[in-house]
């Protein structure tokens, strides 16, 4: 589904949820609530069918199953209300509601493992640190009060299971939020949806202490807005970023350090809230806060130094050291990304320098390096910001130009031939080189595999070489 269609879908879902909030706990509102919920579940399963079969589909199946369990729970509660006129504090519906949480948590954990294979250790440790802090707060404010309430066994055990389920869900979503990988629209939608689920659950437990429950109950339909966000993430063309390894370097964000610091302070703060503001306790809390700040500052400095070294190594692995251009590995990745999902034309220009060997033989390798660096700058100036300039090695270069029609690709080739042919000054001499260019241009509907594109452009370049210096040839012409 196109991005624009996804926004239209989310806009429609938001309008429907707003109407459900306004009509909540009316007969018409109840009917619309159930119809909307079932419709969204149907959309979720249809979205799952559109994902490729295999490992990438399995997490989405679990997500759809969790949403289905929740709607079954709501249907049971609604049927019980209209048949008996009352809803028990604990019932069969709770079984289905609670069963949905571990399925969703498992799906998120599977996504985290697949998007960062072998690189999830830091995210797991940080996520568990924050989860322990959340678990302590849940125990003190949400679980312990129920256990000491004097209710019956079922009413004393089942309600605290929801905060426990939320803690498990928090851990799973933190694994994704803190893991390395791309952060485009599907990831942001998924994180926002799970964040909304957790916020609603907390609000259900906290707000009744301050507001009338009839007002608090109206937030229930907002769960469906979270469902719609997950459906949109599943339908998005970039949804594979949630189930396949990403290339983003793991960088320590300042907010991550802040949250870790707050997690470290959660235990003394909760103890202080529980036992009162004794002077020694306040002093201990201040000392703990200062120590935590110093430790995290030292930790951040060490991590920044390591990140800088890793970034330098990653750059060197994907760029040519002489010209600074991307190398063959980058080109391979971009062809694999662009060609299967292109919605417009694509052009690839394969360049080989004419006369470069004579420059090296006559003036030495220093002159040859100057030629390569100068040609690289001229090629970078000739293309658009969205194009990729690559040095394959030796005196061969490639321009990958998405959304470039054939006629524009020809004009670009003519400009490149002219720019490269401009003399280059070296120690009082003028170095003269040219360029033979092969063009492989494909329309939006033309079948093409990433390996065939480069080979086709290479063959066209050799045809240009045979015809003479400073020419371009269109493949297939």
Automatic annotation (TrEMBL):
- What parts of the sequence cross the membrane? 7-25, 31-48, 60-83, 95-112, 124-147, 159-177, 189-207, 213-236, 257-275, 281-301
One matching Pfam family is GGDEF
Question: Which residues belong to any copy of the GGDEF domain?
Answer: 344-477
Which InterPro entries does the record match to this protein?
Answer: DGC-Regulatory_Protein, GGDEF_dom, Nucleotide_cyclase, Rev_trsase/Diguanyl_cyclase
- What is the E.C. number? 2.7.7.65
- CDD domains found in the cross-reference section: GGDEF
Which GO molecular function terms does the record list? diguanylate cyclase activity
Protein keywords:
Membrane, Nucleotidyltransferase, Transferase, Transmembrane, Transmembrane helix
Q: Which NCBIfam families match?
A: GGDEF
Recorded protein name is GGDEF domain-containing protein
